Amino acid sequence: MRLILLGPPGAGKGTQAVSIVKKYNIPHISTGDILRKNIKEGTELGNKAKEYMDKGLLVPDELVVAIVKDRLTEEDCIQGFLLDGFPRTVMQADSLDTELNSLKYELDKVINIDVSKEELIDRAVGRRVCKDCGATYHIKFNLPKAEGKCDVCGGELHQRKDDTEETVSKRIEVYLEQTKPLINYYEEKGILINIDGKQDIDKVFQDIVTALGRE
C-alpha cells in the first residue's frame, strides 16, 4: 500500500497516520523527520539542506525530492509507505511521480482529510497544551479532569502563541491556497479519496479503511 496523506493543520493527520501505518504495516515517512535525521547524521543531502536552512531559506524542491527518494529506496518501503507532509505543490508531485516511476512504484491512493476552515479554527483556538509534558487538551472536546491542570503530570495548561484565531486563519489560508491545485492534480489521476475529518477519530479511520478497500 503506497499512500500520501493530505490535510490542513489541525485536521488530525498525525492521529490517523499512526493508525494507518499500524494497520497496513508500512513506514510513516514525514519529510520533516527525514530532513532532521539527515542533518543530524551529517549525510551529503542533509548538509546541503542545512546550508539553506541556516540562511533562513526554504529547502529547494529538488533537494527535498532527492531526500524522499533516498528514503524510499530503503528496504522497509518495498511493501509500501505513507508519505506525510510531501508533496505540498504540483511541482513537487510531478517530481515525485518521476522518482516513483524510476523505482517502479505506483501510488495506490492519496488520502485528503477534509475539514472546514471554521472547524479548524475552532479546534486550534480551543487547544490547551501542558507546559511540562506537552499533552494536549481542548476546552470543548477534551477537558482535563482538573481545570488548567494536566491529567498526565499535573503541569499547567496554556494556549500556544500561534493558536490565536488570526494566526490559525492565516496558516489555513496558506495551506488551502497552496494545496488546492495539488488536490485537483490527484483527483484528475483518479486516486484521490476525500475523508470527512469533522467526525469522531475512530469513524474517520474507518472511512479511510473502507475507501482504501482493504478491510
From TrEMBL:
EC code(s) of this entry: 2.7.4.3
SUPFAM superfamilies associated with the record: P-loop containing nucleoside triphosphate hydrolases
Region (LID): 126-163
Keyword Zinc tagged: yes
Start and end residues of each Adenylate kinase active site lid domain: 127-162
Gene3D superfamilies tied to this protein: P-loop containing nucleotide triphosphate hydrolases
Protein family per UniProt: Belongs to the adenylate kinase family.
Record function comment: Catalyzes the reversible transfer of the terminal phosphate group between ATP and AMP. Plays an important role in cellular energy homeostasis and in adenine nucleotide metabolism.
Assembly and interaction partners: Monomer.
Protein name: Adenylate kinase
